[in-house]
Structure formats: C-alpha cells, structure tokens
Amino acid sequence: MFPKKKRVTKGVFQILLKDGKTFSTKLFLFYFQKNDSPQYAIVAPKNIFKNAAKRNKYRRIGYNILRSVPIKSGSGIFMYKKPTITANNKEIKEEMLFILNKFNII
Fold first, then answer.
1. pTM above 0.70?
2. Which domains, ranges and CATH numbers included, belong to the chain?
3. How many helices (H) and strands (E) does the chain have?
4. Greatest Cα-to-Cα distance within the chain, rounded to the nearest angstrom
5. How are strands ordered across the β-sheet holding 75-80?
6. What CA–CA distance (Å, rounded) separates 57 from 101?
7. pLDDT tens sequence across 6-49
8. Which residue, 3, 35, 43, 68, has most beta carbons within 10 Å?
9. Dihedrals phi, psi of 84, to nearest 5 degrees
10. Are the C-beta atoms of 33 and 21 separated by less than 8 Å?
C-alpha cells in the first residue's frame, strides 16, 4: 500500500475530479493538479473489474509502479479504462510512466 501521506484524501479527490486537468490514454484517465506534496490514487472501477479480487490486484499493480518511481510533486488520480483487462503489467507501467513524464512529475 502507498504511505498515508502520499494518498489522496476524500476532499482532494473531489477537487481533482472537479477542477483537475484531464488527460486520457489507451489504458488510463488521469486527473492532475499542481501541488506541493505528492498525493496519488489509483481507481479500478467496479463496472470494469466486476470481481473485488481483480480490482484490488490492479490497484496494487498501480501502487507498486508509483512506489518504484521518484515523484516530485502534484496530486493525481489514475482511473483504469476498459482495455486494461487485456493489458499486461509492462504495458500498464509504460502508460503510467508516459503520463508522469508528460506532466513533468518524474
């Protein structure tokens, strides 16, 4: 799991969905807002991953990728999209790193 101080709180989550910049790729929908402290969340929607075990698995994959990357700052939410079901871990990591590089987060 991600350290508590690096996780997005409920209040920040609502602000990001409402006011954050949106960026879309094949596997993710990313909401971002500049911030001093890095806070991130991974969302695996129930309408894509019907089974709770799969939702938790894909969230763990995302959090492990974020943990392995030195993040400077900013708040963001990674939301999985439907094509993620057929993607492997390497493709997920490449997409996440592409998004983080696009916003100069790493």
1. yes
2. 4-97 (3.30.230.10)
3. 3, 4
4. 36
5. 21-24, 28-33, 75-80, 39-43
6. 24
7. 999 999 999 999 999 999 999 999 999 998 889 999 999 999 99
8. 43
9. -65, -25
10. yes
